[in-house]
Amino acid sequence: MNNEALNRLRWRRSICSSVGLLRLKAHPIQMSACDKVLLAFDFDHTIIEVNSDYHVRKLAPGGVIPHEIVALHSDEGWTKCMAEIFRYLHENSVKPKDILDCMSEVEFTSGMVELFENLNMEKVDIIIISDANSVFIDHILETNGRKNLFHSVFTNPAFFDENGRLSLEGYHVQDHCTLSTKNLCKGQILEDFITARRLDGIKYSLVGYIGDGMNDFCPGLKLSEVDLFFPRQGFSLVKYIQKMETEQGLKVRAELCLWNTGLDILEKIKEKRPDVIKS
Ligand SMILES: Cc1ncc(COP(=O)(O)O)c(C=O)c1O
Ligand SMILES: [Mg+2]
């Protein structure tokens, strides 16, 4: 986080603390916490229309990744597969600039910019939880001029090594959640974030989680009845929610709000919390 962003955060925190103190007089029970809305976004097929990990494959010779590398992709995770893809690209003379230029082509999903521009960021925190990687996400946010909007980005750390190869690690190692990949449990990240913010004096009166894939089911389960779960229309998460309920009795408690573009999300937030929309 740069100095400007840190200062802005501190400034927001100080505003929140004063609001908390004012509340103390009228409503002693709510005293220490500053109420905000949290919107947690998946990245691939959510903030952006494509899957960045698939988009980069076009840089391989003939746009084809060898079968033995593709075969490393599993439901338990794809960081090994992606690390091998990056090794393969490097062996085939793909340079860091080629990868970054390829990511510069990636556009935000329709209506996402309008959604972000209409949220009152004094009242809303937005975060990203993604099983892509930090280099792709950073670059795409930067080229779209939206990097500073996000309070935090949780994803697999990546960097270009001294030879120019993109190197990738898992975000964490976990084996408690069988719904998630081994390297990244979005549900745990969401819960840890909310707990950390609570300790900072920020309480979320509404949490919205926006995603498309099966790896977004675990954070959806963590939401409560007052929250909003946004599975993307026509993507795998919609059917997975039904399947997990009928086959495993795992029921999402939050209100389900299907979405197709960012404008659908904006409409729903407007309806539930007009106070966090810019006037
Ligand atoms: C290779 C690969 N990368 C990324 C993702 C998902 O990333 P995100 O969590 O940003 O949707 C998937 C989902 O299946 C995938 O297969
Ligand atoms: Mg996704």
Automatic annotation (TrEMBL):
One Pfam family linked to the record: Put_Phosphatase
NCBIfam families referenced in this protein's UniProt entry, alphabetically: DKMTPPase-SF, HAD-SF-IB
UniProt name for this protein: Pyridoxal phosphate phosphatase PHOSPHO2
Gene3D superfamilies in alphabetical order: HAD superfamily/HAD-like
InterPro entries per UniProt: HAD-like_sf (IPR036412), HAD_hydro_PyrdxlP_Pase-like (IPR006384), HAD_sf (IPR023214), Pase_PHOSPHO-typ (IPR016965)
Residues at the catalytic site: 42, 44
Keyword ATP-binding in record: no
UniProt keyword Hydrolase, yes or no: yes
Cofactors required: Mg(2+)
Organism per entry: Artemia franciscana
Coiled-coil regions listed in the entry: none
Membrane-spanning segments: none
Binding site for substrate: 53, 131
Alphabetical keyword list: Hydrolase, Magnesium, Metal-binding
Family according to the record: Belongs to the HAD-like hydrolase superfamily. PHOSPHO family.
GO molecular function: metal ion binding; phosphatase activity
Positions annotated to bind Mg(2+): 42, 44, 212
